[in-house]
Write a structure and sequence with these properties.
The protein is mostly helical. The protein has one domain. The chain has seven helices and two strands; from the N terminus they run E-E-H-H-H-H-H-H-H. Helix 1 crosses helix 7 and helix 3 crosses helix 4.
Length: about 140
């Protein structure tokens, strides 16, 4: 592991920069737990072919309609999932650039959109099962 270089890209933030990475299973699961309803909608849109276009176009739609999700994706993509509020304060153009790069790195890392959707669907299913178990245990 010590010689492994994890693919990354740089996002300019004024005179500073952020390094972003693709999302792994831990981050995807974290995002699913916090944004299940939005991801259900994105998943359904993808299945019926509504989620088309370039990574940039998809990133724009995510930022436009799903700002809290976008901020969490950026925070997780920088390796700092607790920094969602700070990610939400980034300028719009920086958020678009970051989301585009994180999505591209994630797709490459996971083997394409179909494979990524399978992972998200499994995480959503597992989260739903855990939620129903804890609800039935409480009742």
């Amino acid at each position: 592991m010590e010689t492994l270089i994890i693919p990354s890209e740089t996002v300019a933030v004024g005179s500073a920069s952020l390094t972003v990475y693709g999302l792994g299973v831990v981050h995807i699961t974290h995002i699913v737990r916090h944004h299940r309803a939005v991801l259900d909608q994105l998943y359904n849109d993808a299945i019926v072919g509504k989620l088309e276009g370039s990574v940039e176009q998809i990133a724009m739609s995510i930022i436009d309609d799903f700002a809290p999700l976008a901020a969490m994706v950026i925070a997780c993509g920088t390796g700092a999932p607790t920094q969602t509020e700070k990610a939400a304060q980034l300028p719009f153009s920086v958020q678009v650039d970051a989301i585009e790069k994180i999505v591209r790195l994630t797709l490459v890392g996971e083997g394409g959109l179909e494979k990524l959707m399978e992972i998200v669907a499994r995480a959503m299913s597992a989260t739903a099962k855990l939620t129903s178990l804890s609800t039935s245990d409480a009742g």
